[in-house]
């Protein structure tokens, strides 16, 4: 099975509790075409305590990585590194406006990636969906 193109499209959260995370993921996931809403791979964090409800709300199967195994979510680790160019580790995102955070997401979506044959994530997603 081919992987769907990678695109930073998640919402920034005001909090990171299980309910806030579930709500943000549900709101984001349901905006995607159905063929992109198959699975979500997450680490073992407490913020996913409501993963069963997420499956019900968004119709997506949630899988968990093994503890201490960040390589099982390689794209997430890579994206976190890219985000650190804009927001150093420990940055309080609540001091940034939604427009500022959206601008960073747009900048990352416009950055060509080797894994996508030097297409941008936005280009690869458009191609995948057409």
TrEMBL record:
<dbReference type="InterPro" id="IPR051917">
    <property type="entry name" value="Transposase-Integrase"/>
</dbReference>
<dbReference type="GO" id="GO:0015074">
    <property type="term" value="P:DNA integration"/>
</dbReference>
<dbReference type="InterPro" id="IPR053392">
    <property type="entry name" value="Transposase_IS30-like"/>
</dbReference>
<protein>
    <submittedName>
        <fullName>IS30 family transposase</fullName>
    </submittedName>
</protein>
<dbReference type="GO" id="GO:0006313">
    <property type="term" value="P:DNA transposition"/>
</dbReference>
<dbReference type="GO" id="GO:0005829">
    <property type="term" value="C:cytosol"/>
</dbReference>
<comment type="similarity">
    <text>Belongs to the transposase IS30 family.</text>
</comment>
<dbReference type="GO" id="GO:0004803">
    <property type="term" value="F:transposase activity"/>
</dbReference>
<feature type="domain" description="Integrase catalytic">
    <location>
        <begin position="1"/>
        <end position="129"/>
    </location>
</feature>
<dbReference type="GO" id="GO:0003677">
    <property type="term" value="F:DNA binding"/>
</dbReference>
<dbReference type="InterPro" id="IPR001598">
    <property type="entry name" value="Transposase_IS30_CS"/>
</dbReference>
<dbReference type="InterPro" id="IPR001584">
    <property type="entry name" value="Integrase_cat-core"/>
</dbReference>
<comment type="function">
    <text>Required for the transposition of the insertion element.</text>
</comment>
<dbReference type="InterPro" id="IPR036397">
    <property type="entry name" value="RNaseH_sf"/>
</dbReference>
<dbReference type="InterPro" id="IPR012337">
    <property type="entry name" value="RNaseH-like_sf"/>
</dbReference>
């Amino acid at each position: 099975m081919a992987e769907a193109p990678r695109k930073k499209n998640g919402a920034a959260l005001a909090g990171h509790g299980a309910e806030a995370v579930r709500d943000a993921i549900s709101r984001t996931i349901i905006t995607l075409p159905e063929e992109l809403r198959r699975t979500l791979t997450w680490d073992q964090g407490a913020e996913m305590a409501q993963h069963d409800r997420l499956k019900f709300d968004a119709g997506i199967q949630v899988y968990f990585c093994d503890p201490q195994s960040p390589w099982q979510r390689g794209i997430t680790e890579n994206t976190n590194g890219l985000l650190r160019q804009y927001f150093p580790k420990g940055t309080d995102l609540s001091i940034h406006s939604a427009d500022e955070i959206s601008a960073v997401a747009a900048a990352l979506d416009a950055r060509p990636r080797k894994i996508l044959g030097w297409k941008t994530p936005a280009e690869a997603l458009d191609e995948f969906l057409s």
